[in-house]
Amino acid sequence: MGHDEREGAGTWEDTAGSAAWSDEDNEELTFAQDEERLPWLESGDEDETASGIDAGRVAMIALMALAALAVIVGGVWWITNRTVTGGEAPQGSIIAAPEEPYKSRPDNPGGKEFEGTGDTSFAVGEGETREGRLAETSEPETPAASPTPRETEAAPSIAAVSSDDAEEVAQANEGVGVQVGAYSNTSDAEAGWRTLTRQTEVLNGVRHRVVRGRADIGIVYRLQAIASDRAAADRLCADLRADGLACQVKP
């Protein structure tokens, strides 16, 4: 039995060794499978590293840009600071005015001469003064016809005024007026006076006059009652207002 046990133990060891060898083989297969790359499981870190910005290329572009800028600045400086050859350099002084007149009338102006040239209106427009004179006419002056005897006789009749009318005109112009209305014509003014005398007894026995005047609406005829003086005119206007009539004292 001891031999069997040893054989059995050797078998177990062998068996265990075989099992152990089998486990190692399995691990190697597992490692081999892990080393295989699967595209859909790979991360993008390596791609990002591969596609990163090239610092050397950026530095080269920056140097080229600086060189181009230096060339442009140098060209501008050379153009603005170069010396002029073959002539005088500008001094920047003020241009002197010529001694001859700036504007002069030509000896032969020529051109078209328009109608009205030389008239007084053009001379006055240029600051000249012309003495006024009457226009000359070729026809002789005709003396005015003397009035006929009939016209001479009629003239005094127009100017003559009767003594009664003169007295009425003088009385109408005397005194202080109390205006009681304004009308467009004398007939309406006289009709207005008759109406007022029927409305109030204050105007009974009071003289009146119609005075032609001008207002904003045009020519008007003012109807005025005549008082002897300013005090009488004020009393007359107060009495008319007491009867409900409008009035205004006119000097």
Structure description:
It contains eight helices and four strands. The protein is an alpha+beta fold. The protein has a domain at 171-250: 2-Layer Sandwich (Alpha-Beta Plaits). The N and C termini lie far apart (178 Å). Residues 1-21 and 151-171 have low confidence and may be disordered.
String of helices and strands: HHHHHHEHEEHE
Q: In the CATH classification, which architecture of the domain at 171-250 applies?
A: 2-Layer Sandwich
Quaternary state, please?
Answer: single chain
Strand order of the biggest β-sheet: 2-3-1-4
Our Rg estimate from Cα atoms comes to: 67 Å
- Uncertain runs are 1-21, 151-171
CATH topology of the domain at 171-250: Alpha-Beta Plaits
Question: CATH top level of the domain at 171-250?
Answer: Alpha Beta
Could you tell me how far the N terminus lies from the C terminus, measured between alpha carbons in angstroms?
178 Å
Strand content: 5-15%
Overall body shape: elongated
Described by strand count, sense and barrel closure, the largest sheet is: 4 strands, antiparallel
| Number of extended strands | 4
Helical fraction:
40-55%
CATH superfamily of the domain at 171-250: Sporulation related repeat
Count of separate DSSP helical elements: 8
Structural class: alpha+beta
Organism: Qipengyuania atrilutea
Domain SPOR: 170-251
Region (Disordered): 1-50, 85-157
Biased composition (Basic and acidic residues): 100-115, 127-136
